[in-house]
Amino acid sequence: MKTVLVTGASGFIGKNLCAHLQIRDDIILLEFNRDSSLEQLSEYVAKADFIYHLAGVNRPKNEDEFVTDNHKLTEKIVELLKNTEKRIPILLTSSAQAELDNPYGRSKAAAENTIVKWSKEVKCPVFIYRLPG
Predict the structure, then answer these.
(1) Taking CA atoms, which of 14, 15, 18, 123 is between 20 and 30 Å from 29?
(2) Residue 116 contacts by C-beta under 8 Å, 6 or more apart in sequence?
(3) 76 pLDDT band (50/70/90 cuts)?
């Protein structure tokens, strides 16, 4: 059995992915969403064999949420992986806007860079999917 963590489990992509993973007999599913705590995230990362990192924000009330919800959450996941010395694959959903110089694009690019840097350090595969919008 593989344990899979899905961040952003309440979002559109996350809900649909979780619905598919829930019917599989070979998967233990851990769902992290906006209402989950950082303690839960720590527990889930420690148990996970694979992470679908789908969490993020693209229409915040405050522009600072781009950094908090897109980049800082990714940094927290990498920090937790480093603390547990886990080397597990991560799939990160990003945005085509990561190539643009706007607050959203910069936050997505920073999240990508964080994941890529960690991947190179520990020699673990990561998958980055830039969604068109």
Answers:
(1) 123
(2) 126, 128
(3) very high
For residue range 53-70, list pLDDT tens digits in order.
Answer: 998 877 767 777 776 777
For the question of residue 129 being annotated catalytic, the response is: no
Measured CA to CA in angstroms, residue 119 lies from 58, 64, 67, 116, 133 at distances of 25, 26, 21, 5, 26
Q: Of these residues, 44, 52, 104, 129, which one is catalytic?
A: 104
pTM value?
Answer: 0.93
Q: Is the C-alpha dihedral spanning 104, 107, 110, 116 positive or negative?
A: negative
Residues 47 and 35 sit within 8 Å (Cβ to Cβ): no
Q: How far apart are CA 91 and CA 34, in angstroms?
A: 19
- 10 SS3 class: coil
